[in-house]
Amino acid sequence: MELSKRQERIIEIVKEAGPITGENIAEKLSLTRATLRPDLAILTMAGFLDARPRVGYFFTGKTGSELLTEQIKKFKVQQFQHVPIVVKESVSVYDAISTMFLEDVGTLFVVDDHSCLTGVLSRKDLLRASIGQQDLNSVPVHIIMTRMPNITVCRKEDLLIDVAMKLINKQIDGIPVVRDTEAGLEVIGRITKTTITKVFVELITNDQV
Ligand code: ADP
């Protein structure tokens, strides 16, 4: 994150004189305590400073990049998941290809009548099926999909970094976010390589270190 001149000055003061009260920091800067309050809140929330009641503010000793890493490690799936694009098991390969184009995704999740996960269709799964001789309208996707229980899933409370590692280790492009129900694993979202790329770009552009 980018700090203002005043916030940098506050860190310097706390480094030199901490633990120090908000009142004393304000005095050193010839500002009121009220003016300083938002800056102190930001610096505390971001982890540069810590505050102890009746003691004051002190410097945590953490650098910007350490704090950013800590922040990224806490990212949860639910903060970043997108809506899943699903098809029913009985849908034809032809219709699944159309859905993939229309929805502009690279992975489709296959579900049963309870919206529960039964399979996954990647671009290559559909390509492979298409280079055969079959009539794509008459082949249902459940014939060619990767099926349960061999599907890597995640849950909304999982850490995003763990899901990113699964994408790399399993060499797949997308992972469904599921919720446990009596009928099975209900598909409620998706995390894909694009999700992770977007997070990376947002971190660099909105939140420069
Ligand atoms: P592509 O095949 O287009 O490169 P992937 O790398 O995602 O896309 O898929 C590779 C294979 O892994 C495909 O056969 C696909 O069905 C399967 N697959 C994709 N996602 C998952 C997943 N979450 N769990 C298990 N297998 C998957």
From TrEMBL:
Swiss-Prot/TrEMBL keywords: CBS domain, Repeat
All residue ranges annotated as the CBS domain in the record: 80-136, 145-208
Pfam family, one: CBS
PANTHER family with a match to the protein in the record: CBS DOMAIN-CONTAINING PROTEIN CBSX2, CHLOROPLASTIC (PTHR48108), TRANSCRIPTIONAL REPRESSOR CCPN (PTHR48108:SF32)
Record-given protein name: Control catabolite protein of gluconeogenesis
Organism listed in the record: Oceanobacillus picturae
